[in-house]
Each structure stands twice: as C-alpha cells, then as structure tokens.
Amino acid sequence: MRSMSDDHTHVQEFFTARAAGWDRRFPDDGPVYAAAVAGLGLREGDRVLDAGCGTGRALPPLRAAVGPSGVVLGADLTPAMLREAARAGRDRDGALLLTDVAALPLRPSALDAVFAAGLIAHLPDPAGNLREIARVVRPGGVLALFHPVGRAALAARQGRTLTPDDLRAEPNLRALLSRSGWRMTSYVDEDTRFLALAVRAD
Ligand SMILES: C[S@@+](CC[C@H](N)C(=O)[O-])C[C@H]1O[C@@H](n2cnc3c(N)ncnc32)[C@H](O)[C@@H]1O
Predict the structure, then answer these.
(1) Which of 57, 98, 122 to mutate to test ligand 1, by most ligand atoms within 8 A of the CB atom?
(2) Using alpha carbons only, how large is the chain's radius of gyration in Å?
(3) pLDDT above 70: percentage of residues in the chain
(4) What is the pLDDT of residue 196?
(5) 116 Cα: distance to centroid of ligand 1 (angstroms)
(6) So where are the chain's domains?
(7) Which CATH superfamily is domain 4-200 in?
(8) Dihedrals φ, ψ of 74, to 5°?
(9) Which atom of ligand 1 lies closest to the CA of 26?
(10) What is the pLDDT of residue 2?
(11) Order of strands across the sheet with 193-200?
C-alpha cells in the first residue's frame, strides 16, 4: 500500500522534473487564468489562497482582484515549483508557502476564497484535503477548481479514456464537494476550460 509520504514524493518528483519548463509549455494560458479568477468574484481587500500554486501563474490576476490591501497566498508542496514562481517575480504578488494543502498553516475561516488549478487530481485524499481547505475558508467563501483544459481534452492528451468514476465528472464532484464542506454552484467542462465553483457551507 502507498503511504501518504510516497504520494508526496511522487508528486514532488513529477513536478520537480517539470518545474523549469512549466511556463514555457503553456505560454498562452494567461487570459484563461484571469477569466477563471474572475469567477471567484473577489473584492478589494479579500484574502485568497492559490492551493497548489506551482509557478504562481494565477498570482498576478489574484493580486489584481484583491488589490494592495488584500492578502494573496500561494501554497505548494514542490520546492522547485515555488523557486520558479519566485524566479518569475510572482512572490511580489503573493506570499509563497511550502506546504501540503492537507495541513494548512492557517486559522479557521482565515480566507474568503481558494483557487486551485490542476490540483485535485494529485491529491491522495481529495475529501480530506477539500475539508481542510474548507476549514480555512469562512462560511460563504468560495472555491474554484480549475483546469485550462477540459476533462476530455486532458484525457486525450494523457492517452487515457474518461470513465464514469472520474473524480471530476459532475455528479462525482458534486458529491465529493458536498461531503467536504462545500456546495457546488456551477460546473463547466468544455475543451478549453474546466471550472467548478463551490461555496463554503455553514
Ligand atoms: C498541475 S500543477 C498546477 C500548478 C499551477 N496551479 C498551475 O495551474 O500552473 C499541480 C501543482 O500542485 C502541487 N501539489 C500537488 N499536491 C499538493 C499538495 N498536497 N499540497 C500542495 N501542493 C500540491 C504540485 O506540486 C504542483 O505544483
């Protein structure tokens, strides 16, 4: 049986190998990230976390949305991804935290919103980890689960076939979110983006 630390080592090895070329692989994604961030409906002064921020591609639009009085955090498990984020100057838009989203160094209800791009498929315990993310978001706060490619296009790119038990299939994701402290409010899965929005339940 794989242990939690095996899972982390695997994630870290996978993304360490890809960190240096990450942004060059996806040079045109800026506008779709900005559009997804807009889905959070952030306001000036809000506190937001980019969970699994990687090289921090979402940090500039998140900062633009909350302004200088807001709080922007980027959390990731892979040091090499955070180094690339800092190299790209994205630590000017948000504070970078080397941490597992399974145990966030934040107080309950500390945040208004969480953005998570390309994260959920890598979590060893999606329900437990989404519950931990819910812990640090105030009731009524928002979660965006995003991917710049839809499920079918991503599966094709990875040489996989989509099956009904896919974690991000609408009924599965709705049920997963609801048992993790969230209520799914919208779901879009098209070739050019996947975006599920949820509100933190009371
Ligand atoms: C597909 S990448 C996406 C990076 C970035 N969000 C983006 O859209 O470019 C997934 C990221 O999630 C991070 N990650 C995976 N599991 C994590 C965990 N349990 N806690 C924190 N970060 C994690 C990986 O290190 C990696 O940087």
Answers:
(1) 122
(2) 16
(3) 98
(4) 98
(5) 8
(6) 4-200
(7) Vaccinia Virus protein VP39 (3.40.50.150)
(8) -125, 120
(9) 9
(10) 54
(11) 95-98, 71-76, 47-51, 111-117, 137-147, 193-200, 182-190
